[in-house]
């Protein structure tokens, strides 16, 4: 998780150096939020599968 956070921060800084406009910033924020939701969902699915198969 720490590597993911540091990688995200590096990407965020690089992106901001490109001087995006407000619309682009909002789109990137939404994309980042959705990506995080996807990763959480994948983790939850793995946990559920684990419970089903090993309990």
Write the layout of secondary structure elements.
Blueprint: H1 2-17, H2 22-54
How would you describe this structure to a colleague?
The protein is elongated and about 50 Å long. The mean pLDDT is 88. The protein starts with a helix and ends with a helix. It is mainly alpha-helical. The chain has helices spanning 2-17, 22-54. It has one domain.
Provide tags for this entry.
elongated
Give the overall average pLDDT: 88
Q: How many E strands?
A: 0
Q: Provide the succession of SSEs.
A: HH
- End-to-end span in angstroms? 27 Å
| Strand fraction | under 5%
Helix content: over 70%
Largest sheet: none
Oligomer: single chain
User: What count of domains describes the coordinates?
Assistant: 1
Q: Output the radius of gyration.
A: 16 Å
Uncertain regions: pLDDT < 50 for 5+ in a row?
none
Shape: elongated
- What's the helix count? 2
Structural class comes to: mainly alpha
């Amino acid at each position: 998780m720490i590597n993911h956070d540091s990688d995200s921060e590096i990407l965020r800084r690089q992106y901001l150096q490109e001087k995006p406009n407000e619309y682009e910033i909002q789109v990137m924020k939404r994309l980042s939020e959705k990506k995080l939701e996807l990763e959480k969902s994948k983790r939850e699915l793995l946990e559920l599968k684990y419970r089903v198969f090993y309990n």
